[in-house]
Specification:
The chain is an alpha/beta fold. The chain has a domain of about 110 residues: Leucine-rich repeat, LRR (right-handed beta-alpha superhelix) (Alpha-Beta Horseshoe), CATH 3.80.10. Helices cover about 45% and strands about 10% of the residues. The strands form three sheets. A four-stranded parallel β-sheet has the order 1-2-3-5, with no helix packed on it. A three-stranded mixed β-sheet has the order 4-6-7. A two-stranded parallel ribbon has the order 8-9. Helix 7 links the parallel strand 8 and strand 9. The chain starts with about 25 loop residues before the first strand and ends in a 6-residue tail after the last helix. GO terms for molecular function: signaling receptor activity.
Length: about 230
């Protein structure tokens, strides 16, 4: 199938589904920024031309698929005249060009370094350690930042969970002040407790210190806050 020179930049997911016997596909001279991953479902492709597009790389999925096609029945792949990039993300692609058994139209393509310099992928391959010495540093920095951000997030969540009641009552305090302002009335207490029997000791020794001292709530307690009438 030849659909070259059509300024194609996108393929629907199911485009190739009705073509299980596709063996030849020419996508040259279009505007593709990546080889359609839908092709990885095809099992009989022997020739693929994606030259003169806007490819910056060939994904690992497509590389694996091309290698599989080569093993099954041979595979020819045309990649010339694209916008390949030689950077840390493309090291796998740069190596693949030199090591794959797929029949490529060339074994070296023009590619652009991060600083804008244009070189050949073969030069990039032979100078991997010189050109991309910082890649491992970037990788470890990324891992470190990811771990640090995860640690900070988990720590904040744990703190928020441990202080959840303080947070809830702080929000309650804000809402209360808004309500008091609207109704022109201030409330003296936050909580009223009525109790009796054996629970008195727990109320006095545990609940009251918790609510008043730790959570900062004003409690209304019968024995303490109600004045005894002598009449």
């Amino acid at each position: 199938m030849d659909i070259s020179e059509n300024d194609i930049w996108y393929f629907p997911d199911d485009l190739f589904n009705p073509m299980p016997n596709l063996t030849y596909l020419n996508l040259g001279k279009n505007s593709l920024q990546s080889i359609p991953v839908q092709l990885s479902d095809q099992t009989k492709v022997k020739m693929l031309d994606v030259s003169k597009n806007r490819l910056t790389s060939v994904s690992s999925a497509i590389r694996g698929w091309a290698d599989k096609m080569q093993e099954l029945h041979g595979m020819t792949l045309h990649l010339n005249d694209n916008a390949f990039e030689c950077n840390c993300d493309n090291i796998g692609f740069i190596r693949w060009i030199q090591t794959t058994k797929v029949d490529l139209d060339r074994r070296s393509y023009k590619c652009k370094l991060s600083n804008g310099t244009v070189i050949d992928t073969l030069i990039a391959y032979t100078s991997l350690y010189d050109l991309f010495a910082d890649c491992k540093n970037i990788m470890w920095l990324t891992i470190a930042l990811t771990l640090l951000s995860s640690f900070i997030t988990i720590s904040l969540l744990l703190v928020a969970y441990s202080k959840r009641w303080k947070i809830i009552f702080s929000i309650y305090g804000v809402i209360r002040r808004v309500v008091e302002k609207k109704v022109w009335k201030r409330y003296q207490y936050d909580v009223y407790i009525s109790y009796g029997g054996d629970i008195v000791i727990w109320i006095k020794n545990v609940l009251i210190p918790k609510l008043e001292a730790e959570w900062g709530l004003n409690m209304c307690i019968k024995e303490r806050d109600f004045l005894i009438s002598l009449g």
